[in-house]
Amino acid sequence: MPLALFALAISAFGIGTTEFIINGLLPELAADFGVTIPAAGLLVSGYALGVAVGGPPLTMLGGRLSRKTMLLALMVLFIAGNLLSALAPSYGVLMVGRFLAAFAHGAYFGVGSVVAADLVAPQKRASAIALMFTGLTLANVLGVPLGTWIGQAFGWRATFWVVVAIGVAGLAGVLALVPHRPRPSGAACSASSPRSARPACGWPWP
């Protein structure tokens, strides 16, 4: 499998971790900001709202950009949201940071799936997409428990700093490893396209 798939998986790991990690940090957040645990729980809803609001327009915007450029932009947005969360001086600013980070969620997995499929031959597309989503699975199995432990041991801000570091690693991986290809021009770019036309479609196989 191309190394670029692992870069996509790292980014997916970071996005999945930041989505669910807040659940294990609610007591610390509530105590730090002087709010109730149910009020702190709204940070979960704020993230979900950001996914719902940000996904459609960013996906539409992706139609105007190359896929690599879109992935890079989404990771910058993800990093910015988590950086704001790590530095948040108040509950309201943390909510804004969560909302901003969530914008990247839906669009990243949509664009990332297409990029993963385009990195390999047709018969390997399912495996490539599954490898990218392995990052999301590992976020639930490893990222969330580890992030909760870090937050409880060193403070909740430390968890967000770790997520920022993961985001930077994912951004660097996408920048270095994901090839830059023009978007397919339309119906002419299909599995039945002649081999001579496939490079113009941005497909990696001969």
Task: Record the SSE blueprint.
Blueprint: H1 3-20, H2 26-33, H3 37-62, H4 67-87, H5 91-118, H6 125-154, H7 156-177
Helix pairs in contact: 1-5, 1-6, 1-7, 2-3, 3-5, 4-5, 4-7, 5-6, 6-7
What this model shows, in words?
The chain is mostly helical. Helix content is 74%, strand content 0%. Mean pLDDT is 84; it is low at 186-206.
Considering the chains and any ligands shown, give keywords for the structure.
206 residues, 7 helices, disordered C terminus, mainly alpha
Brief description of this entry?
This protein is 74% helix and 0% strand. The protein has seven helices and no strands.
The major β-sheet equals: none
Beta strand %: under 5%
Are there runs of 5+ residues with pLDDT below 50, and where? 186-206
- Gross morphology is globular
Order of helices and strands: HHHHHHH
What share of the residues lie within helices? over 70%
Mean pLDDT: 84
- First and last CA, distance: 16 Å
Query: What's the tally of helices?
Result: 7
The total strand number stands at: 0
Alpha-beta classification: mainly alpha
Gyration radius from CA atoms, angstroms: 18 Å
